[in-house]
Amino acid sequence: MVLKSALILLSLARFLSAYQSPTCLSPNIDGSLSNKAICCLNNNNIGEESVDGTIYKYKCGYYSDSLIWQQGQYSSNANDCARKCSAQATSNTPCHAATWMANSNQPNIGTCYLSTAGFKEKPDLTGERLLLVRTDRTPMDDYQPEIDEVVKQEQENCDKIIDEDRKRYIQFTRNCRNLGPYYKEIRMDKTVKFQLFCETYPQSKNGKLDLGRTSGYEECLKECASRGKNCKSGWYDTSSGNCYGFKRKEKLIGNGTWNIGFARVP
């Protein structure tokens, strides 16, 4: 669950950062002329962005030869032109690059030309054209090192939790083989004695004190002892490592769970 949440947050952060401002291949740009202005602030602008999960490289002032069709297609923006290339990617004459122009014989509508494999990048002296090159990469490929690091950290955390659970289990079986009550002394500024009851649980949880997560029942007893008269009884949950206490001496009952109940001895 923690790993899933981390990956979702990572993906969301990347998604939001990519859409903080209009980008060259954004589908949300109105008008081909506006799109051209965003893509090509100068004639040497280059970059890469994702279009429907595929990374496209763009380069202002260049175009591709080896056209699939000599006749261009109407295309409202660079994103639409890239999509036309992606749609042609699995055909008998797959598209590997596209050239987009911001003008056509329609107002504020551009023109898109698709190119096959083996195309060459050529400079456009007029500066009117934008080259779009389809890659085999996806956005996740770029983030894979970060994802691997998250997975590694989460695996280390899981291993640590499993090791703590194993230690608590060993401690529980070692000290609770007999279900009868026994005593445990905790030395603080002065000795505090507790009576422990294996596999017991408080009859009521009203007014419980959350003493935090501890590495074992002895640390749980220390947490209770440190609170003086404000903690007179409680229980340690060996399955989660959580420690709870009560200001009163709560009645403990057996319920077959892996809990260690305790009560301060006057």
Overview of this protein structure:
Residues 1-18 form the signal peptide. It comes from Aspergillus caelatus. The protein has 266 residues and is α+β, with helices and mostly antiparallel strands. The protein has two domains: 35-142, 3-Layer(bba) Sandwich (Hepatocyte Growth Factor); 175-265, 3-Layer(bba) Sandwich (Hepatocyte Growth Factor), CATH 3.50.4.10. Helices cover 30% and strands 30% of the residues. It contains five helices and 16 strands. The strands form four sheets. The protein has a six-stranded antiparallel β-sheet with strand order 1-2-8-5-6-4, covered by helices on one side. A hairpin with a 2-residue loop joins strand 1 and strand 2 (54-60). Helix 1 packs antiparallel against helix 4. The longest helix has 37 residues, at 139-175. It is rod-shaped. The chain starts with a helix and ends with a strand.
CATH topology of the largest domain: Hepatocyte Growth Factor
The tally of structural domains comes to 2
| Unreliable spans | 15-21
CATH-scheme architecture of the largest domain = 3-Layer(bba) Sandwich
**Residues in helix, %:** 25-40%
Q: What is the CA-based Rg, rounded?
A: 34 Å
Mean residue pLDDT: 82
Order of the strands making up the biggest sheet: 1-2-8-5-6-4
CATH class of the largest domain, anyone? Alpha Beta
- Biggest beta sheet summary: 6 strands, antiparallel
Which geometry do the CA atoms define? Answer: rod-shaped
Instruction: Tell me the β content.
Output: 25-35%
How many strand elements? 16
Helix and strand pattern: HHEEEEHEEEEHEEEEHEEEE
Tally the helices: 5
Measure the end-to-end span. 44 Å
- The chain-level structural class is alpha+beta
Protein name: Apple domain-containing protein
Organism: Aspergillus caelatus
Keywords: Signal
